[in-house]
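Technical note accompanying the year-one report. For the benefit of new consortium partners, we illustrate the data format agreed upon in the data management plan: each record pairs a sequence with a structure-token string. No post-processing was applied to the example shown here.
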Amino acid sequence: MTDLDRENAPEREITPDRASPPDRESTPVTAHRWAGGRRRILLGAGMLVFPALTAMAVGGNVSGPAAVAGYAVVVAFCLCYVLLAFSLGCERPHWIRALLAVMTVLFLAALPSARTDAFFLATVVVSAVAALWRRHAVLAVAAGTLGALLLPVAVPAWHTGPGGFQALALLFTSLTCGAFAEIAATNEDLVAARAEVARLASEAERNRIARDLHDLLGHSLTAITVKSRLAQRLAAKAPEQAVAEMTAVETLSRQALADVRAAVTGYREVTITGELARGRELLRAAGLVADLPSAADAVGPEHRELFGWVLREGITNVVRHARAARCSVLLTATSVEIRDDGPGSGPGGGLVGSGKGLTGLRERVAAAGGTVEAGPLDPRGWRLLVTVRPPAPRPGSRPGTRPEGTT
């Protein structure tokens, strides 16, 4: 199998072990972590006003054992409410449902002694339902409000009319708690989204640095290796040329260090003219015939950096893997083509595979809206072709007319 960087095995894509976010409607505890901390304490303390109002009504409506029973029901309701707040903080969904069911039963038990004011206990229950299960909020609020209005009229022994104040308290308190929970849940989503954006930005930056370092160092280290071998061969018969090659190696190493620093800081620049010069020198040092254009005027400025990266990666891999004797480059306004006359298949042959180099090259070209084609030539050789979309015509220009400055 051919490979752009055969010594680099393809990396396995690693995804973080992240659990899918739970459904807010089906898991109220996870969905409403707003219940923890200072907000839970403040909201919970405020809701205790309603059981206090119910307790005051018990003493005004009944006395003796009935009053004691009524107070006991209110106290039990308060204890369940405290446990409910604790369950929200500890994320115990089964406890929440059970406690709400018990609190509903206690509300019904408080009706004989607190009468209409027992609906203050219902306000606490309905508010919790509105905050935790917004899907059922409308039904719960409607049932509680209608109950406060109609039940006192249906029980003549209470000698009272519709519980308008209790109904309004239940309605507006439940709506307020539901809106507060919605806002808090939205804020939680925004915090999670911000953290995800930061994670993706960090991952993208790491990928950019890894891609740039691979492309930069692959070319520089290959050139250093080729020139070092050439200097070794020339050391005995042409010492002056060997010294010149080693001087070039020093220059390349310094340039590689500068490129690494530029890649890490995000300020690296690759030009097609510079890559043609470097590629010609690298091919010469490797003993390959270089058929490269002397200028890159045909390539527009919007594609010169991309084509520079393609030249760097393609020529570097011809030297490293193709086992060729000749390398040619053809440039047009919308394409760059690199050919060699190597075997094109088998171990070490060819230009393209599934390593990091091809992955990074495909990412760069795809970002520019282009395509990458690679494959063997008949009967021998390999071709790497990168094509991009032609630039959009300038406003006011007519189809088929030449741009200014061309002949």
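Partners are asked to follow this layout when depositing records. The two ends are 46 Å apart (CA to CA).
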